[in-house]
Design a protein that fits this description.
Helices cover about 20% and strands about 40% of the residues. The chain is built from 2 helices and 9 strands. Strand 8 and strand 9 form a beta hairpin. The longest helix is centred in the first third of the chain and has 13 residues. It is globular, with a radius of gyration of 14 Å.
Length: about 110
């Protein structure tokens, strides 16, 4: 498993956590769910309820939780943050994805 969060994405995640007045130790949950225009879609959100089966990855104090099913699809993903005026947001670079939609938030395997 080699999930990567770029420094730019890490900075933005920490900024959003602070804006939402969440404790610094609140982990980020990263996962995959069925749906989206390509079959699967990524989701991210802050989640204070770690489950025993979760994989835990840490990046400079940022704790990321991933459930085992999602890990099957995103074990090599890189999460970046794009600050372009027209396309501001998180970018998911997943080598396991056979195709993805134009928004970059859904994919197929």
């Amino acid at each position: 498993m080699s999930i990567t969060v770029t420094p730019r994405a890490e900075e933005e995640i920490k900024k959003v956590k602070k804006e939402q007045n969440l404790p610094e130790e609140t982990p980020l949950r990263l996962g995959v769910k069925g749906g989206g225009c390509s079959g699967f879609s990524y989701f991210m959100g802050f989640d204070g309820s770690q489950k025993p089966e979760d994989q835990v990855i840490e990046f400079n104090g940022l704790k990321v939780l991933v459930d085992p099913k999602s890990l099957t699809y995103i074990s090599q993903i890189e999460i970046d943050f794009n600050e372009d005026v027209l396309n501001r947001g998180f970018v998911f670079k997943n080598p396991a994805a056979k195709s993805s939609c134009g928004c970059g938030h859904s994919f197929s395997v």
